[in-house]
Amino acid sequence: xxxxxxxxxxxxxxxxxxxxxAFDPASNxxxxxxxxxxxxxxxxxxxxxxGLRYRTVEGAxxxxxxxxxxxxxxxxxxxxxxxxxxxRALPGFIIAIPTDNGLFGPAxxxxxxxxxxxxxxxxxxxxxxxxxxxxxAWRTF
Length: 141
Description:
endopeptidase fold (from Nostoc punctiforme), 24% strand
Protein backbone atom coordinates (compact mmCIF):
# COMPACT_ATOMS: atom_id res chain seq x y z
CA UNK A 1 0.00 0.00 0.00
CA UNK A 2 1.28 3.44 -0.89
CA UNK A 3 1.92 5.92 1.93
CA UNK A 4 -0.84 8.28 0.75
CA UNK A 5 -3.35 5.41 0.86
CA UNK A 6 -2.15 4.34 4.31
CA UNK A 7 -2.55 7.93 5.58
CA UNK A 8 -6.08 8.18 4.14
CA UNK A 9 -7.02 4.88 5.78
CA UNK A 10 -5.60 6.14 9.07
CA UNK A 11 -7.86 9.21 8.83
CA UNK A 12 -10.84 6.93 8.14
CA UNK A 13 -9.84 4.80 11.12
CA UNK A 14 -9.84 7.89 13.36
CA UNK A 15 -13.30 8.86 12.17
CA UNK A 16 -14.57 5.33 12.79
CA UNK A 17 -13.08 5.15 16.29
CA UNK A 18 -13.74 8.70 17.55
CA UNK A 19 -16.50 10.13 15.32
CA UNK A 20 -19.50 11.54 17.18
CA UNK A 21 -18.08 10.59 20.59
CA ALA A 22 -17.71 13.05 23.43
CA PHE A 23 -14.35 14.37 24.61
CA ASP A 24 -13.38 12.26 27.65
CA PRO A 25 -9.71 11.88 28.67
CA ALA A 26 -10.63 9.14 31.17
CA SER A 27 -11.94 7.04 28.26
CA ASN A 28 -8.95 7.76 25.97
CA UNK A 29 -10.92 10.22 23.87
CA UNK A 30 -8.93 13.44 23.51
CA UNK A 31 -6.85 15.17 20.86
CA UNK A 32 -3.59 13.52 21.96
CA UNK A 33 -5.05 10.00 21.72
CA UNK A 34 -6.66 10.92 18.39
CA UNK A 35 -3.34 12.04 16.89
CA UNK A 36 -1.52 9.03 18.38
CA UNK A 37 -4.11 6.68 16.87
CA UNK A 38 -3.60 8.26 13.45
CA UNK A 39 0.19 8.05 13.73
CA UNK A 40 0.14 4.42 14.90
CA UNK A 41 -2.16 3.47 12.02
CA UNK A 42 0.57 4.81 9.71
CA UNK A 43 3.38 2.97 11.46
CA UNK A 44 4.76 6.00 13.30
CA UNK A 45 5.51 5.32 16.94
CA UNK A 46 4.85 7.64 19.84
CA UNK A 47 7.21 6.20 22.46
CA UNK A 48 6.67 8.93 25.06
CA UNK A 49 2.97 8.07 25.19
CA UNK A 50 3.58 4.38 25.89
CA GLY A 51 1.92 3.50 29.17
CA LEU A 52 0.83 7.10 29.76
CA ARG A 53 -2.44 7.23 31.69
CA TYR A 54 -4.46 10.21 32.84
CA ARG A 55 -8.09 10.78 33.76
CA THR A 56 -8.41 14.54 33.38
CA VAL A 57 -7.19 17.29 31.10
CA GLU A 58 -5.23 18.73 34.01
CA GLY A 59 -3.52 15.36 34.58
CA ALA A 60 -2.57 15.17 30.91
CA UNK A 61 -1.13 18.69 31.07
CA UNK A 62 0.96 17.73 34.11
CA UNK A 63 2.36 14.69 32.27
CA UNK A 64 3.23 16.87 29.28
CA UNK A 65 5.08 19.36 31.48
CA UNK A 66 6.98 16.51 33.21
CA UNK A 67 8.11 15.28 29.80
CA UNK A 68 9.55 18.73 29.15
CA UNK A 69 7.01 20.10 26.69
CA UNK A 70 5.40 23.51 27.01
CA UNK A 71 2.64 22.75 24.50
CA UNK A 72 1.33 20.12 22.09
CA UNK A 73 3.07 21.70 19.09
CA UNK A 74 6.43 21.19 20.80
CA UNK A 75 5.49 17.58 21.64
CA UNK A 76 4.62 16.76 18.01
CA UNK A 77 7.78 18.50 16.79
CA UNK A 78 9.72 16.17 19.11
CA UNK A 79 8.51 13.19 17.05
CA UNK A 80 10.71 14.40 14.21
CA UNK A 81 7.99 14.55 11.55
CA UNK A 82 8.21 17.33 8.98
CA UNK A 83 6.15 20.50 9.37
CA UNK A 84 4.41 21.64 6.16
CA UNK A 85 2.13 24.45 4.97
CA UNK A 86 -1.56 23.64 5.39
CA UNK A 87 -2.08 23.94 1.63
CA ARG A 88 0.06 20.79 1.19
CA ALA A 89 -1.82 18.77 3.81
CA LEU A 90 -3.31 15.45 2.79
CA PRO A 91 -5.74 13.17 4.61
CA GLY A 92 -4.08 11.63 7.66
CA PHE A 93 -1.62 14.45 8.31
CA ILE A 94 -1.61 16.02 11.79
CA ILE A 95 -2.72 19.61 12.34
CA ALA A 96 -2.54 21.98 15.33
CA ILE A 97 -5.66 24.12 15.55
CA PRO A 98 -6.00 27.20 17.80
CA THR A 99 -7.89 26.66 21.02
CA ASP A 100 -8.73 28.72 24.05
CA ASN A 101 -8.24 25.78 26.44
CA GLY A 102 -4.83 27.05 27.53
CA LEU A 103 -3.73 23.90 29.39
CA PHE A 104 -1.84 22.54 26.37
CA GLY A 105 -0.67 25.84 24.99
CA PRO A 106 -2.38 27.58 22.12
CA ALA A 107 -3.35 24.47 20.13
CA UNK A 108 -5.36 21.27 20.02
CA UNK A 109 -4.45 18.45 17.65
CA UNK A 110 -6.59 17.21 14.79
CA UNK A 111 -6.34 15.10 11.66
CA UNK A 112 -6.35 16.67 8.20
CA UNK A 113 -9.08 15.41 5.91
CA UNK A 114 -7.97 17.77 3.14
CA UNK A 115 -6.25 21.15 3.00
CA UNK A 116 -9.31 22.97 4.44
CA UNK A 117 -11.07 20.38 6.61
CA UNK A 118 -9.95 18.68 9.81
CA UNK A 119 -11.30 16.06 12.18
CA UNK A 120 -10.92 16.55 15.90
CA UNK A 121 -12.69 17.45 19.11
CA UNK A 122 -14.69 20.61 18.47
CA UNK A 123 -17.40 21.72 20.85
CA UNK A 124 -16.70 18.64 22.97
CA UNK A 125 -17.53 16.15 20.18
CA UNK A 126 -15.25 14.43 17.66
CA UNK A 127 -16.32 15.83 14.29
CA UNK A 128 -15.01 17.40 11.11
CA UNK A 129 -14.90 21.16 10.63
CA UNK A 130 -13.68 23.67 8.10
CA UNK A 131 -10.28 25.00 9.17
CA UNK A 132 -10.19 28.80 9.19
CA UNK A 133 -6.93 29.10 11.05
CA UNK A 134 -4.16 26.73 12.05
CA UNK A 135 -0.90 26.89 13.94
CA UNK A 136 1.05 24.12 12.25
CA ALA A 137 0.61 20.98 10.14
CA TRP A 138 2.85 17.92 9.88
CA ARG A 139 3.25 15.36 7.13
CA THR A 140 3.18 11.73 8.17
CA PHE A 141 5.03 10.19 5.24
